[in-house]
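Handout, section B. The chain below has 331 residues.
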Amino acid sequence: MSKALALVVVLFLVLFCEKCYGELRVGFYEGKCGLTNVEDVVQNVVNTWHIEKKEKDIPAALLRMQFHDCFVKGCDASILLDGFISEKQAVPNLSVRGYELIDAIKEALEAKCQGLVSCADIISMATRDAVVLGGGKWYDVETGRRDGNVSLASNVNLPAATISVSDSIKLFASKSLSQYDMVYLLGGHTVGIARCSLFKDRIYNFNNTGGPDPSMSPWLLAELKGKCPRISLFFDNTYPLDVKTPSLVDNSFFQEIKRGNGVLQIDQQIALDELTKNIVDDIVSDPDFYTKFGEAMVKLGRVEVLIDGQGEVRKSCRVVNEKPFIFGGFH
């Protein structure tokens, strides 16, 4: 190969892979479904679901779903699989929502291009569209993932609300995510709610002291005492994670944790710990939070993905594909 031809090939590969990460790339499905734009189909279903079902908390539901999926054996849609011992049955996942929306998106895509779009990619695209619905900024989603075929509740080991900042940084690092990514991804708590049982110890018996967490503002302490009584036999009430704009994807979550209004212990601690407080300070004063939050979501979507011949593209997001029967056994 001549030097000139070799240079042309190198330049072509550089240009072609400008938006690639391994086998993931922006626009993976372009031209693969005739005249149908796969991402438009996903966005239309998300928007229609939001309007017709009147579900205003789609952003919180899908942000949580993507995080819970990617942090357990990678972004392979294993959280969507049904089963008595599947990831859905793990305690942290019992309150995950949004499955019916993913089903609706999959049905719409299968009607257009059967067996083309993975459930793992649907989660990433739908989450992005939900973020936009919640007031966030559009970000390009890399696609090309394939679906996993193993889903076990025993594999679910998600970080607790009481995890320390240093341990959280180590956990995110094990997923090739930096402490900056971690802080921005925790910013997903700008939408959504938490049950009192997740933070009641901060109100009444922080670290077995018999009193409240001293890092909590007096205002928040009074609020949570009113919402979460010390003894509640039948009800586990909820409280928004962003006390100012709980339905909007914005940086008010970070503004509030700076004031001592973090509901979960880890949320409050990232504003206080020497390892992360400067990052929080920067986010509070950064008008471009939306772009950087989107970048962190893209990095989350790269965690331990299945590509090429790995995994499969499920026909239904709830079950693995049936293997064709061949003479002498199953293939």
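Note. The first helix runs from residue 3 to 16. Compare this with the example in section A.
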